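User: I'm curious whether this sequence folds into something compact or stays loose and floppy. Could you predict its structure so I can see for myself?
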Amino acid sequence: MVSPIPILPAYQRNCYEDPILQEHYVCLGFKIAELRRSLGISQRQLSDFAGISRSYLSKLEQGSGIGGVSLEVLLRIAHCLHMPISQLLHFRVQDYQLCNKQLAQQHRL
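Assistant: Here's the prediction. I'll summarize afterward.
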């Protein structure tokens, strides 16, 4: 049985053709940001290591304004965060719930 993916609030929606892909991008970005902060790594440090601009990393962490991310970038990010890429890309229902809760707090809903 496949667990349902919680629906993101309208304020976090993008224009991805596939809404499930959008859910994953937002959750991935949130996970990267939370892990980065917990390790005390700045956006600048992580973006330099991953070979991307800080603004791209910011968009990735927000889950908005990007059309995709390369496997190479994800591998570098996972390495910098001291985890296998499989763990970075594994989303549990709790991950989506935490992501949505944080987004709601940021937007005071």
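Summary: Confidence is low (pLDDT under 50) at residues 10-14. The two ends are 31 Å apart (CA to CA).
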